[in-house]
Amino acid sequence: MGEDNAKYTMDEMVKRINELYHKSQAEGLTDAEKEEQDKLRHAYAANIRNNLRGQLDNISIVEKDGSITNLGEKHGR
User: Which CA distances in Å does 1 have to 19, 23, 71, 77?
Assistant: First the structure.
């Protein structure tokens, strides 16, 4: 896998992160591989945060008085 982490699917990212982890345990990583691993981990974590934020922004609560509060509009970005 190459430099542009944005082109990876989540499955491909996880697969590559795991490959690099197992290689690091078995024989160690080159500096370039360590950098790739760090970038992939950060990209993966950012993707998870964005997905969770998107889900939370779409939650609406029905109040006792029957009104609906959209939490994304109330507390989101």
Answer: 11, 14, 39, 33
DSSP character string of 41-74:
HHHHHHHHHHHHHHHHHT-EEE-TTS-EEEHHHH
Q: Which two tokens stand for residue 50?
A: 């964005």
Q: Is the pTM of this model over 0.70?
A: yes
Distance, in Å, from the CA atom of 27 to the CA atom of 65, rounded to the nearest integer, reads 63
Map residue 2 onto helix, strand or coil. coil
pLDDT digits (tens, 9 = 90+) for 29-57: 999 999 999 999 999 999 999 999 889 88
What residues contact residue 63 under an 8 Å CB cut-off, 6+ apart?
A: 69
